[in-house]
Amino acid sequence: MQQLLNTALGGLTLGMVYAAFALALVLIWRSTRVVNFAQAPMAMVTTFVALVIVDAGHSYWLAFAAALASGLVLGAVIERVVVRPVEGGPEINAVILTLGLFIVLHALAAVIFGNRYRSFPAPFGVRGIEVGGTTIALTGFGIFTILAVLVTMGLLLLLFQRTDIGLRMRASAFNPEVARLLGVRVGRMLTLGWALASVVGSLAGLLIAGGSLVHPGYMDSVVVYGFVAAVLGGLDSPFGAVVGGLLLGLALSFVSGYVGSQLVALAALVILMLVLVLRPGGLFAQTAARRV
Amino acid sequence: MPAMLTITDLAAGYGPVRALDGVSFTAERGRVTAVLGANGAGKTTLLRTISGLHRAERGSVDLDGQRLDKVAAERMPALGLAHVPEGRGVITELTVEENLRLGALGRAGKVDSSDLERVYGLFPVLADRRAATAHVLSGGERQMLVVGRALMARPTTLLLDEPSLGLAPRIVAQIFELLRGLVESESLTVLLVEQNARSALSIAHRGVVLNLGRVVADDDADALAADDQLRHAYLGF
After folding, report:
1. Which of A159, A161, A278, B79 is the most buried (most CB within 10 A)?
2. How far off is chain A from B29, nearest CA to CA, in Å?
3. Interface pTM (ipTM) of the complex?
4. Is the pLDDT of residue A292 over 50?
5. CB B152 within 8 A of CB B103
């Protein structure tokens, strides 16, 4: 019973991070039809920004805010400088560019921040909480992780569903030409979409790093699961990304806890294949054949 | 009637293909001007060039004394020009009401509920389905939605692209009846691009016939409809 609970709690925490990462991928895919392979190193760079600030003796929260802010700027700059110039060409061009960016950011981080493992602080305890004499696998930082992702998702939902700017962003993503005719500055909306996605990616990076070790490649395994989660949900659906992330986190936690931790990556592949065979558009694809 | 929209020597194309080759005509204020012609005559390119979606190679577009040919498409709603794409221009992933609200964002000033209520008054069908995703609407309802959405920006001039496309004859008659009423009640200037020449001429005051990117006729709608030779050669009825 206790193992079941702990496995579920571990899966939930991890699933939240996958969900955040998948959401970042979906936000970009939905608006610009680019699979952003550079998402992981972008998050890694912003985590190192936080680490530099912490190492300089400032508080975790200042570093946290600075990482998110630098994520916002980094996302906007990459959209403007790297993605925008190839817009209108074959869609694969932008994807290849993000792969190139993956390598460049890795290399730059190794040069600037050093290519070794460094410990990253956590603002809350990373030991299991005690409930009635037994320790459960839910840490203070785990609770923070879950809440931070939930709050972020709530804010994004409000932005997209309840504000004019959110309506403009959705219109730009769904039908850029019609949006232009209605007076929407589509280019700005796409930049904003990348910036927001990059903030969500940075959050995932900070949450993975908390109480753990960081290294220029520390996000690379997360990116694989983030992609799987995004595809599980159907790349077009932010809601699907969140559910996909949670399902994947739970499933992998159970595989790790009951079957064997060496099978986790294989299990992710099996889950992905099963879903794609049964529902090729992903679990929550609303418009599987929308692209013309 | 004074000119609202003046097109002078407009040329545009796609690479080596000349879609518009020196088109000139005027659309009078408060009137419906039909632009007719077969598929490939340049009608849609004309609208896209006027509204800034396609770049003109030569010539000018003037809306009520203001040059439009260097203005970006996204600024047109603020200048009073609304380009209504054919029914496929509905954003199907958004709800009916979100489509309408989007229409008002391009103009200066705040959207208030009176704009929405006005459009719902004109198209009661849309009011019944305001919370529905636009994807469930029929072809006729989609056409009403794109027209209603354009009206949300309180335009002076409407560019209508093939409002009859893909609709059953009964629905086409209904849409044109609605348009006729709107032009009178809102005193709109309308440039109506149509392949369905008979329906278009029934509500237009003037007609311009395009063939291979050039104007081959520009006359009162009644005169065009009465010209048997022109009808047979270009209008197909």
Report:
1. B79
2. 22
3. 0.90
4. no
5. yes
